[in-house]
Description:
This protein is an alpha/beta fold. The protein contains six helices and 21 strands. The strands form five sheets. It has an eight-stranded mixed beta sheet with strand order 9-10-11-14-15-18-16-17. The protein is globular, with a radius of gyration of 21 Å. 43% of the residues are buried.
Amino acid sequence: MPKVTVAEAYAPLAVLPAPPEPFDLVTFPEAFLPLESFLDFLAQLDSLPKTCGCIHVGLRADDATRTHLIGHAQLLDALHRIRGLRFLRSSDLDAFSDWLSTEAAGGFYNVGAIFSWDAEGYLRLCLHPKLLRSRYEHNVAAERNMKEASLLSAVLLRPTDGRLPPLTIQPLLCSDALQNQQRDDGLPAPMYAFEADLEGTEEESPRPEQVDVVSIAAFTPLSPTTRPGAGRGRYRWKREFLDTLRIAAEGAQGFRHTRSAILLANYATDAKGKPGGASGIWVPWMNPVMLDSEHFETLVYAHPDDRSHASLCEEHAYEESDWIPADAIRMLQLPKPAPRLGWNVLGSLTTLRTIGERSGSTRLIGLTLHRIPRFVSGWAASQQHAVTGAIAFDVAASELGDSVIIREVASG
């Protein structure tokens, strides 16, 4: 079963030694790789060993322009060049090509790519446009005003061994994951659009029965926390992103994401230097190994079972059914938030600490996911369900910036 990697980094991309273990999915942030560099990389892939896993990366126009958006003509040219690769399954690009051909010239788009080798040695590539513009992509200048796409994307990984289950990955770009913004055409939020009554029959637009992994390439500042016990100068994902994780696990928008592992990859700072980072993974259970350390932490979405625990939460200004840092739980001497220990747990988010919260030059963290959530029993947590961690690399901040690796998913 797949190993999963989340990376957060500054551009330009640094050259690093190969990791000690192979990966199955590595996710880089939104607008991470210049389109021309991406095309050059694809052209050289055939000369490299065909052993890497999936790579999900956000693309941008180039290093010279002030916008990350890619013009319609530039996309058409890139698509033509990619289709010319003899080792590519070009049919994978048919849906993207059909969509782009219906778009009027002059539009500008935010685009990501997820790609890997298949068992027969062919390159499999999915280009996916952003469907929901963020507030930073509204602009009077055409080249800085993102046009919302109307193409939903999902990647089905089907093992050659029939005894192993298929795996569905949904790639998204930053605000695609949010619930509190509306598309211009009124269609539902992209993350949950598979649940909506869309045009076309099921045969024409097949939808995954279950989304196993949501890979979110982000570029967003974080919010400072004011929670007691969280420490000064700490930052958390904005409430809009945390709500996405909660809504997915609750099944409020449908059943396809209730058992999803959700990966978040972000830059260490935003374009204006505001704190970013906190890349990591959400799983819809409580991680039985508390991962708080100087390098990373765990946030738990939980509420106490009995009134005494609820009163203690209220005394320390923690709302019931709210996000509680695991280190604050220990500080307040509350029961560990695990099933059968006085807490109702919806899920947990393990992230790399932001730059101001940790010392040293550690930028890459290895985490092991032992079970895909779809195959985890909801009755009890165990070590087999844990997300365990270890430092994988130690590089100077000037080389890369900030990265976290989610390493392995064992067989379910």
